[in-house]
Please model this.
Amino acid sequence: MKNILVTGGAGFIGSNFIYYMQRKHPDYRLVCIRLVCIDALTYAGNLYTLDEARKGNFRFVLGDITDRKTVFALCNEEKFDAIVNFAAESHVDRSIENPEVFLKTNILGTQVLLDACNKFDIPRYHQVSTDEVYGDLPLDRPDLFFTETTPIHTSSPYSASKASADLLVMAYHRTFGTPATISRCSNNYGPYQFPEKLIPLMISKALADEKLPVYGEGLNVRDWLYVDDHCKAIDMILENGKVGEVYNIGGHNEKANIDVVKTILKAVGKDESLITYVKDRPGHDMRYAIDPAKIHAELGWTPETLFNDGIQKTIDWYLNNREWWQKILSGEYKNYRG
Ligand code: NAD
Ligand code: TDX
Model:
């Protein structure tokens, strides 16, 4: 029996991870994975997303990772084999408007989970981090990539909070021996992503014939990874990753924002005249690009989904699941409690 606490499981990547683990391990005879999800249901948490998960070996707990009492009571009751921490404030633009909640959830929330690991002897902690902790790369140096030894160099309150959490995880590992790993992934896309992030925002706006707001000149580059490939990497790190180590995750899928937007418009049959260039994001990182050599060499991870296939699957999902994102746009999802 394996009992895993997934924090932030009502969000984009956490929910995809729950579905990935339910698909991957359902027929285990001796090892049964039970997933317990704790989520504060902030604006980014959506219980509609977990409707299918409830049919499996799964428990949802409404709770805030910064609330030590709730987290400790849950850990005492459940005897977890691992904590995988997805819970976070995750949107860069919101961190520019209001940094405080990012510091609280992303840093102090991580500390509470690490303390719980130590207190209840939880044998594994995994921190889901981001390539944004490395800052950005110049557009005119396509030979440069982020490796695990690239210095931390953050640009936004969001990335500063994620980097702070990473440093705390490493400090707990060194000082207390907390059995922790960290993964730093590039931009994800796929089902259940909140329509404030580039890809789902542009799909939903294009379908509604609304203007598509591209920051600056749209030349910023992101390294896109289909969400299931990220989930697979985390599963492999949990199984065979070395504690105290950082693993970069990315699939060499660099695209300029404007090209992503044009691909979406073409796929949904809408005109490029919907594109509107708007004021740039302050401190906007130019280019992200991950070197995944370490996770490939040590754990044998490789991404399976090419961008052209993944973006088509994602667009099809948003076309076939309009109700899911329309309930977000209308605000109805906030009242749903499963
Ligand atoms: P998301 O915003 O879609 O989901 C975050 C979830 O965390 C939501 O369900 C929210 O309700 C929950 N949450 C927020 N504050 C909480 C709190 N205090 N207590 C409990 N739950 C809380 O985010 P996402 O895109 O799924 O990102 C998940 C993780 O992956 C984050 O840590 C993020 O930094 C990291 N990450 C994301 C990407 C990406 O492209 N989306 C890439 C690399 C890393
Ligand atoms: O309306 C928009 N117009 C636009 O041009 C939005 C929302 C974004 N953009 C640009 C900004 C970025 O260059 O698109 C790019 C992607 O933006 P986001 O989807 O906001 O993602 P990003 O800022 O790259 O951060 C994401 O990847 C790393 C996630 O939100 C983070 O949680 C993750 O750590």
